[in-house]
Amino acid sequence: MPTDYSGTWDMTSNENFESYMVALGIDFATRKIANMLKPQKVIEQDGDSFTIKTFTTFKNYTVSFKIGEEFEEVTKAMDNRKVQTVVNWDNDKLVCVQKGEKKNRGWTHWIEGDELYLEITCGDKVCKQIYKRSA
Predict the structure, then answer these.
(1) Model pTM?
(2) Cα–Cα distance between 81 and 24 in angstroms, integer?
(3) H/E run at residue 24
C-alpha cells in the first residue's frame, strides 16, 4: 500500500528556489515576493486520486490528478504555462513529469517521519523544500 500523503503541511525549508524561478523565466519582482512566502500544502488522497492545495498570502493553487493519467495543467502558481502532466508512483515517492516549453520540468514528493519533502526541477535547477505536518 502506498504512503498516505493526506494532511496539512507547513514549509520549514526552501533551498535554491530563486534559481529555479529564474529557470522558469519568472520576473524579478515576482521572485522577490515568492521567496518570502511560507506555503502551506493541504493534500487530500483517496487511493490513487490526489488533490494538492498550496496556500500562500500571494497566490493559492490547486491541482487534482489520478496516478498514471496524463492531463493538461496550467501552472498558475508559478509561470502560467500549459504543460502535459503525469504523476506516477516510484515506490513511496510521487514523481511528476511536466512536458512543455521548459525542459526537464517536474517534481518529486516523499515523506520521511513527519516531514514532506519536495524537489522541483526545471532544466538543471533543483529546488528542495521541506514541510512539517501540522498538528
Answers:
(1) 0.94
(2) 10
(3) helix 17-24
